[in-house]
Amino acid sequence: MEIWDLHGHLSGVPGRTPDERMAQLIAFADRLGIARICVYMGMTWSYDPAPDDFRKQNDEVLQALSHWADRAFGFVYVNPKHVEASLAELDRCVRDGPMVGVKLWVARRANAPEVDAIVRRATELKAVVFQHSWIKITGNLPGESTPMDVASLAARHPDAAIICGHTGGDWEQGVRAVRAQSHVAVDLGGGDPVAGITESAVRELGAERVIYGSDVGGRSFASQLAKVIGADVAEDAKRLILAGNLKRLLAPILEAKGLSG
Ligand SMILES: [Zn+2]
């Protein structure tokens, strides 16, 4: 079965440079038969990056992608606290560069109005929008989105391709929070490989809205693949989750860029 991974990072991967880390990611992916990996954010994490910081992180991803155009895709990391700089970065990395998606993390919640201009520009460029989300028992970070925030963003952008990161973290609530927004898909990446997440997402959303991602190097490919491979869902559903859905979401921008899927 073909496997495309929605969710990967350079952080947490061995290597001194973006090139070394990307080569390591590909070596791990090869062991598990993963054909493609989406990569976003730089060698070190920052929750609330200033424009210089997110530009540097995106440069690292561009460098990592440069030798692996046939294996990896990049999503541009931006910060809605800096709207103009984020829009310029979208243009640099997606419109004028090879990237195909946008990564929004924990600087500003998805229900904030500043996020709108970024999602609008992404949608004009046919880029997919990956928004991290979680519901933490200990309380979210001040700018950290819940899946309910992602649903409210999606309601304002019916034409956008929006992915709810980590299925909301607390996935039993997450799948229900985004269920009514039929253009929102969920990312299975991150968290422990507990039984039931994939079955629950398929039951509540339909298999075409569920996407395998690992969150590597925060998590391993193997533990996250197990959520899908070991799930009690039909083979056809696994095919969609492991590659088909991400291919369908990326098809418009890959086509626009003249890249092959
Ligand atoms: Zn991640």
Brief rundown of the structure:
With 261 residues, this protein is of the alpha/beta class. The chain has helices at 18-31, 51-65, 83-95, 114-124, 147-156, 171-178, 197-205, 221-229, 235-257; strands spanning 4-8, 36-39, 72-77, 101-104, 128-131, 162-164, 184-187, 210-211. Helix 2 packs parallel to helix 3.
What characteristics describe this protein?
261 residues; 8-stranded parallel sheet; TIM Barrel; binds zinc ion; alpha/beta
What does this structure look like?
- With 261 residues, this protein is of the alpha/beta class.
- The protein has one domain (4-257): Metal-dependent hydrolases (TIM Barrel), CATH 3.20.20.
- The chain has nine helices and eight strands.
- It has helices at 18-31, 51-65, 83-95, 114-124, 147-156, 171-178, 197-205, 221-229, 235-257, and strands at 4-8, 36-39, 72-77, 101-104, 128-131, 162-164, 184-187, 210-211.
- Strands 1-2-3-4-5-6-7-8 form an eight-stranded parallel beta sheet, sandwiched between helices.
- Strand 6 (162-164), helix 6 and strand 7 form a beta-alpha-beta unit.
- The protein is globular, with a radius of gyration of 16 Å.
- The mean pLDDT is 97.
- Bound molecules: zinc ion.
- Residues 7, 9, 190, 215, 218 line the site of zinc ion.
- The site of zinc ion has 5 residues, from loops.
